[in-house]
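Priority: medium. Attachment 1 of 2:
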């Protein structure tokens, strides 16, 4: 069964999804990564997406779904959706798409984190671009040292600057948080405390996913 992983930007969704993928043999699909790959391809659609993302806004539900659908259709494994859905409309679209593809959603898990911690984490966050163009986030799964050893270039995501972080948080409260009610009503909702060591968060997450 598929899983939705939600939480404010910086809550640790990517880190935890990576661990789940390794432990339970899921396929991790981060819509942020999918969009950044489209930008890196240099396509016209990528240029349009870059302008929206760099301002910290959401791309349209229709465009997001059409990009995501191609990946989901080619994925036989159970999926961890990271960064999707981000609006109630997307949650409804996901429900329809999964039904159409004969897939089932098992849980929608929110990683919670106090707001000031979110701002601190995102403002300190760094990425590493490896010589082959792959981008990794520096953190528990990929250290600064690994980046340096592999001759990566360290940079800050354009949407991780303090003013963009505050805007992204406002977007999260306004557009993404209402999804919680949607999943509570569907009896799929669960929460884990993201304000602890990544290993502890993972223990909680694993328990929730296996329940
Ligand atoms: P993330 O890497 O998940 O923080 O996503 C980075 C940015 O990509 C977001 O701030 C949005 O601009 C865009 N994005 C990612 N996922 C979605 C989505 N499901 N719907 C719309 N925009 C998205």
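Attachment 2 of 2:
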């Amino acid at each position: 069964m598929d899983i939705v992983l939600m939480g404010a930007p910086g809550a640790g969704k990517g880190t935890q999804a990576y661990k789940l993928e390794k432990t339970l043999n899921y396929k991790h699909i981060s819509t942020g990564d999918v969009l950044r790959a489209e930008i890196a391809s240099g396509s016209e659609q990528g240029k349009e997406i870059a302008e929206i993302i760099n301002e910290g806004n959401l791309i349209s539900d229709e465009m997001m779904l059409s990009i995501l659908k191609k990946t989901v259709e080619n994925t036989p494994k159970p999926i961890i959706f990271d960064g999707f859905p981000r609006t109630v409309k997307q949650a409804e679209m996901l429900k329809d798409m999964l039904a159409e593809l004969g897939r089932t959603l098992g849980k929608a898990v929110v990683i919670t984190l106090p707001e000031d911690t979110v701002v601190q984490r995102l403002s300190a966050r760094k990425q590493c671009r490896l010589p082959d163009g792959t981008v990794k986030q520096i953190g528990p799964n990929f250290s600064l040292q690994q980046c340096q050893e592999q001759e990566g270039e360290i940079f800050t995501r354009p949407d991780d600057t303090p003013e963009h972080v505050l805007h992204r948080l406002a977007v999260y409260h306004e557009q993404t948080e209402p999804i919680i009610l949607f999943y509570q009503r569907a009896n799929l909702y669960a929460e884990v405390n993201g304000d602890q060591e990544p290993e502890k968060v993972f223990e909680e997450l694993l328990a929730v996913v296996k329940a």
